[in-house]
Design goal:
globular, about 30% helix, 12 helices, about 425 residues, 10-stranded mixed beta sheet, binds guanosine-5'-diphosphate, binds 6-O-phosphoryl inosine monophosphate, 4-stranded mixed beta sheet, single chain, alpha/beta, binds magnesium ion
Amino acid sequence: MKVDVLLGLQWGDEGKGKVVDVLTPKYDIIARFQGGPNAGHTLEFNNIKHVLHTIPSGIFRQDQVNVIGNGVVIDPIVFNEEIRSIKKLAVDIHKKLYISKKAHLILPSHRILDAASEASKGKTKIGSTLKGIGPTYMDKTGRNGLRVGDITSGNFKDKYLSLVEKHKQLLSMYNFEYNLIEYEQGWFEGIETLKEFHIIDSEHFINNELNKGKSLLAEGAQGTLLDIDFGSYPYVTSSSTICAGACTGLGIAPNKIGDVFGIFKAYCTRVGSGPFPTELLDSTGEELRRKGNEFGATTGRPRRCGWLDLPALKYSIMLNGVTALIMTKADVLSGFKAIKVCKKYNTTEGIIDYFPHDLSIVQYPVYEELPAWSTDLTEVRKSSDFPAELRNYINFLEEELNIPVKIVSVGPNRDQTIVR
Ligand code: GDP
Ligand code: IMO
Ligand code: MG
C-alpha cells in the first residue's frame, strides 16, 4: 500500500492532531516523521481534551499501531509525562506504540542550549518553544547525537556524559546560568520508561507492513512555512516539515507516497517571531484570537492572527504535492462583517503573487474581500447545510488553488468534521 501524508500548510497549529484522529480508523499505522515536543496536537472526543507532543494522534483509537519515526526527536522527560497522562485514560499504550531506534534524544543540556541561544539573540530571537529542538537537530547533522537505539548499550552513560561535556563547553561561551542536575534525574527515569516500549528498526517494520498491504498515515508536525529549507528562514524549526520529510523521517521511498492531505485554517496564525504578511494587529486580529481560542497548545503563548494568505498556500501546495485540502476552524469566521483573503503582496520590488525568498520585502498584502456568514457552524454536520457564503468561500479557494477541499472542520471535536 501507499503512504498517505497529512501535513500543515501554514505556520503550524492547523488542527493536524484533530484530523489525524478523525482519519485514523481508515489506516493500520499512524506515524510521526519529524519534529518533537515543540508540537502540540490537540484532540477532543467523549468530553476529553488531550494534547499530544511526541506521540502520534492515532493513539486513542482501538487497533492502530503508532510509530515514532527516525526523523523525530524525543525528550524522555516529556515522553514520560505523556505516557503517564495517556495511561490515565486507560489506553493500552505499550501494545500500540513503537519507537524507532534511530530517533534522536533531546538531552537536558539541549534544552539549556536552546534557552541560552535564544537569550543571546535578544530581539532577533526565533521565539522557539525552548524544547531543545534546534540544538538536538544540530547534533544530529553534526554527527554527535544520541539515539534511542543507544539506550540499551553498556556505555550509554559514558556517551551521555561525553555529549554533555561538549555542551558545557558550548554553554561557557554564553553568559547563561543553568542547573543541569534538576533535569537529569527525570531524564534518566524517562530513559527507563522508553525501555518498556517496542524499540524497533522502524524503516524495516514500516516497509514490511506496507508490503503486506497495510496502510499508513504519516502525521506532520509544525507546518510548511516553518520548514528548515523552505520556511521563513531563520524563523523556522529545524526539521523538514514538508512531504519529502516523510520519506527521510520514516524510511519510505518517494514512489510510496499516495495522497497528500494539506491542512489549513480558514484564516492564518503564527506563534513565535518572524514575518507574517497578513497579520492583523487590530481588533479583527483580537477577535480571531478570542473566537478561535488561539493560544499555543505547547507554550500557552497567544498566537498571532491574520487573514488567509493565498501566495503562501500555493507555495505550500507546490512543495508538498497536495492532492486534497482540509480546511479547519471554518466556525471561527462566523459573524465577521467580511472575510479577506490575500491574493498578492505589495513589496519593495513591486506587486508579486508568489512567496518570496525574503518575506520582509512585503509592505502590505493585496486583499480580495468575500461575503461573510452569520450562521453558527458548530452544529452543522452536512455540507448541504453550509450557508451560501461559506460555499462561496470554499469554491473560491478551490478555484484559486486548483485542489478540492475534501474536509471542513467546524469545531475542535471529532464529530465536528464534514467530509465533502
Ligand atoms: P495542531 O498542532 O495542528 O494539531 O493544532 P493545535 O492542536 O495546536 O491547534 C488547533 C486548535 O484548534 C486546537 O485547540 C484544536 O482543538 C482546535 N481546533 C481544531 N479544529 C478546529 C475547528 O474546526 N474549529 C475550532 N473552533 N477549533 C478547532
Ligand atoms: P505543531 O505541530 C506552531 C514555532 C515556534 C518558533 C519556531 C521554532 O503544534 O503545529 P522550535 O521550538 O521548533 O525551535 O521553534 O517554530 N513552532 C511551532 N509553531 N506549531 C508548532 O507545532 C510549532 N513548533 C514550533 O513557535 O516560532
Ligand atoms: Mg499545535
